[in-house]
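Batch manifest line 922
LIGAND: protoporphyrin IX containing FE
JOB: complex structure
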Amino acid sequence: MTTTNKTRLVVIGNGMAGMRTLEELLKLAPDMYDVTVFGAEPHGNYNRILLSPVLAGEMTIRDIMLNDVDWYAQNGITLHLNKTVTRIDRARRKVIADDGTEADYDRLLLATGSNPVMLPVPGIDLHGVVAYRDIKDTDEMIEAASRYRHAVVIGGGLLGLEAANGLRLRGMDVTVVHLMPWLMERQLDRTAANLLQQSLEAKGLKFKLEKQTAELVAGESGRVSAIKFKDGETLPADLVVMAVGIRPNTGLAEAAGLHCDRGVVVDDTMQTYDPRIYAVGECVSHRGIAYGLVAPLFEQAKVCANHLAQLGISRYTGSVTSTKLKVTGIDLFSAGDFIGGEGAEEIVLSDPSCGVYKKLVVKQDKIVGSVLYGDTADGSWYFQLLRDGQNIRELRGRLMSGQSHLGNSGHQGQNNAASMPDDMEVCGCNGVCKGTIVKAIKEKGLFTLNDVRKHTKASASCGSCTGLVEQILASTVGGAYQPADVSRKPLCGCTDYTHEEVRKAIIERKLKSIPEAMGFFEWRNVNGCASCRPALNYYLLCAWPHDYIDDPQSRFINERAHANIQKDGTYSVIPRIYGGVTTPAQLKRIAEVAEKYAVPSLKLTGGQRIDLLGVKKEDLPKVWADLDMPSGFAYGKSIRTVKTCVGSEWCRFGVQDSTSLGIALEKALDRMWAPHKVKLAVSGCPRNCAEATIKDVGIVGVDSGWEIYVAGNGGIKAEVSLFLVKVKSAEEVMEYASAFIQLYREEARYLDRTVHWVQRVGMDYVKKRIVADATGRKALHERLKDALRDEKDPWQERVHGAAAREFVPIRFQPGIGSA
Amino acid sequence: MSEWIKICPLEEIPRLGSRVVQTGKGDVAVFRNGSDEVFALRDQCPHKGGPLSQGIVFDRKVTCPLHGWTVQLDSGEAVAPDCGCTHRYRARVGKGEVYLNLS
Ligand SMILES: Cc1cc2nc3c(=O)[nH]c(=O)nc-3n(C[C@H](O)[C@H](O)[C@H](O)COP(=O)(O)OP(=O)(O)OC[C@H]3O[C@@H](n4cnc5c(N)ncnc54)[C@H](O)[C@@H]3O)c2cc1C
Ligand code: HEM
Ligand code: SF4
Ligand code: FES
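JOB STATUS: finished
ARTIFACT:
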C-alpha cells in the first residue's frame, strides 16, 4: 500500500448511503481523499431494496450488486470486508475493527444503517428466527423455504409483506401477524389496507390482525416450531421472520460520545457534533427524523459529498417520502399525510369491484398526502405536486382523472406502464422498449429519471414518455424512486445554484458577462457546459439588454448561424412575413433566390411563411442579401410568428381585424429573445381559425373587443391556453400581451415554454401581475419596448460583414506554408 | 512522413469555437478551447454524422448540435454513457499559427 499526504477519509458501513456518498464525492473531487471503507458484511455494496425480488425468485444476488469489489480497486479505495468497526478513538482519530485492523482518519463518515428490532419475547434466539435485512437473512429464508412448510411473518408493514410474498412464492404456507387493526397502518388508510389484504389473500397469504406475540416455542430439534399469542392461540411455525421495525444503528457512535437521539444527530450539512465526523443514511437523525427509505439517503449523500469536497454550498433540509410496495401484481402507492385531520379535505375515488381506490388529502389548495391502490399511474404526478407544494386549485376538477397524457403524441396513447409487455416501445423518439428500461434499471442500479435518460435515452428527447418511464422506474425500484425536485433545480451539473438564484445575483451583483457569473458562483467547470452557457447568455442578455455583449460561442448553432441546422448539416432560411401577409414582389424575390442558389426544397410552414430548405452554410449571407427580408427567427429561443386569420377585412364572420393586429404584434415583438420559443396567433372571431388557443399568447376577437389567452402549446403535449383577460382595444392587447411576455422573459427558467412556467407559478400569480397591477403591467410593457429598441436584424448585420468567419470554411492547401 | 500544414492564425478561430477546414479527406473541424489549445476531429459525430464543428465547446469537449452527444476533443471518443469514436487528427499552435497534420 502506498502512503500519500492526501487527507484520509474513513467510511464505516459499506451500504447504500455510504457508497452513494463516495460516488458523489468521486464525481466532485476524485483525488482529494485517501479512502478506506469498513463493511461488516462479506459483500461489496448491493441494492438492499432488491432483496425482495431476490427472495421472490425474480432476481439473483448477482443482479443486485451496485459496486463490486473491482469498483473499489479501480477507484483506489481500500476495502475491509467482513470487518466490524468496534471502536472510534476520537482523540487519536482512528477506528479499530473486531479483528484489530486500525485506520487513521482526518474525516470520518458513519453509514452504519439500522438494525432490525427483535421483539423481547422468549424464544427469540431459536434457530429459524430471522430478521429481514441483508443477504445472509435472505439466504436463510430461501434455504428454510426449501425444507420447511410453515412460515410466520411478524409485522404487517412494507418489509413484512414483501417477505411474506416472497416466501409464499417459494411454496411456504405463510401467515402474517400484525399488532394493529390493519396492514401498513403507517402508509395506508383502512380502506386501502383492506383492498390490499384482499389481494394478498387471493395470492394465498393468511393474516392474523391485532395479535400480540407472547412466545416462540422450540421444537424437538431445538428449532422454532410454533408461535404463541397473548390470547393463547398457537400457530405452527418452522420459520419466523421478524419485521416489526428498524432502529438506527448508533451503538458505535454513542460509545464514542457522539450526540445521538434516536439516530446520530446531524445538522443540515450532515455533520455530527464532532466536526470531523459526518453521518448519512438510516443511522442518522436529521431535524428529529430518521429515515428508512433510500430516496432521502441519496439526497443526504449528495449534500454530504458536497461538504466533504469542501464546496460547502448545499444543505439537506429533509425529505418528503413516498412508498410503493414491491409485490408483483399489486399496485400501491402512498405519500405524505394521508389521514388528514383538522382543516384537511379529502378527494376520494373508490371503486372496490374494480379494485381501485384513490385518495388525495388537500389542505389550503395543496396536496399533502395521497394513497393510491389498484391504479397508481398518477402516483408520481401527485407526489410531484405534493413535494413542490403546488397550488392545485385550477387542477382540482381534473385531479382524479389523472395527468392526462392523452394530449401526448408518440407512444400510442399508452398510459399505464404496468400493463405494457416488455417488448412494447415506450420512447418513440429513441426506440426504447419497456424491457430495455427495466433491464438497465436493475443491472446498472439506476434510481432517477436522469440516470435512466442517460443510460437508455428513454424520454431523453421529446420527453412525452416521461410519465411512463417514471412509472416503470417506480415499480422497479419501489420507494427508492425519487422524482426530480423541480422546486430546487440546479441550473446544470456545473453548479448547485438554481436558475432563480443565478438570475437574482446577475441583477443584484451587476454581473455582466458569463465568466463573471461563473466566477461569482464558483462554477465547477471553467467553461461551463452546453446546458448552462446558453442559459447564462440569455439571463445576462435579458438583465442587461444594452450592456451585455452577446457571446456567440455560448449559443446553440442555430442561433449562432441565424438559421436552422438540418440533419445533413445544411441550413434552412425562413424570412419574416409579418402576419402571414405577403406580396407578389416578395414572392417573386423568394422564387428568384430559390432558383439562383438551387435551393432543393420550398415549404409553407405551419407559421404562415415560406421555408427555403437545404441552403449551404457558406451561401447563407448571400441568400440573405438577395432576399432582403428580415430574419424570421425561426431558429431561435425567440419570437417565432404571429399567425393570423383573414379577419373582418374579408371574412363574412369576422368581427375584428385580426390580420392588422397580428402584424402590429409581430412588429412590436420582432427580434425578441426569450427563454424558449414564443408563438402567437390572432383570430378575428370565436371560430378561431388561427388556432389561437394553443399558442403562448392567443388573441380571439369578439364583438365587443378581444379575449387574451396565454400559456397554450401545440407540441408534444397539446395544452389549451388559459383565459387571461378580455380587453376592448388593440392598444390594450398590445400592452397586456407584451407585459405577459416580458414577465415570462424575466421570470421563467431557460427552456421553459410559457405553459411550463405558468403551470409552476399558477395562473393566479400571472393575473395578479398582469391584470390586477396596472402600474406593474405598464412597467413590464415599457421594459420590453426598451429591451428591443436597439436590437438589429441579424441577417442584415451579417450581410454587411458581421461574424464573417462563421460562414467561411478554410481550404486545406498542402504545399504552401508547411512548417 | 508527417506533414504539418499551416491553416490560419489562431485568432481566426474563435475561443471556445471552431473552424471547418475543407480537405481531400472531407471536412475537418479544428477547435480552439478556453486555454487556447487546438484540436482537430473529422467533422462527423460518431452518432449520426452531425457536424461537430457547429457544437458548443467547453473544457476539452464539444457537444454535437444534432442530438447532444458530447465528444472528447483530445481523443474523438464520445463521453459515456454514449459510445463511439470519430477520427482525430493532430493539430498544434506555433508562433500564433495553427497547423494541421492529416497523416
Ligand atoms: C428487504 C428490504 C426491502 C427494502 N425495500 C425498500 C424499498 O422498496 N424502498 C426503499 O426506499 N427502501 C427500502 N428498504 C430500505 C433501504 O434498503 C435502506 O433504507 C437503505 O439500504 C439504508 O442504507 P444505509 O446505507 O443507511 O444502510 P445499509 O444499506 O444497511 O448499510 C449499512 C451497512 O453498514 C454495515 N455496518 C454497520 N455497522 C458497521 C460497523 N460497525 N462496521 C462495519 N460495517 C458496519 C452494515 O453491515 C451494512 O452493510 C428496504 C430494506 C430491506 C431490508
Ligand atoms: C366553427 C366553424 C368554422 C367556421 C364557420 C370557419 C370558417 C372559416 C372561413 C369562412 C374561412 C375562410 C376565410 C377565407 O375566406 O379565406 C376559414 C379559414 C380557415 N379556417 Fe376556419 N372555420 C371554422 C373552424 C375552423 C377550425 C376549428 C379550424 C382549425 C382548427 C379552422 C382553420 C381555418 C384555417 C387554418 C383557415 C385559413 C385561415 C386563413 O386563411 O388565414 N377553422 N374558416
Ligand atoms: S376566425 Fe372568424 S374571422 Fe377569422 S377566418 Fe375564421 S371565421 Fe373568419
Ligand atoms: S449526430 Fe451528433 S448527437 Fe446525433
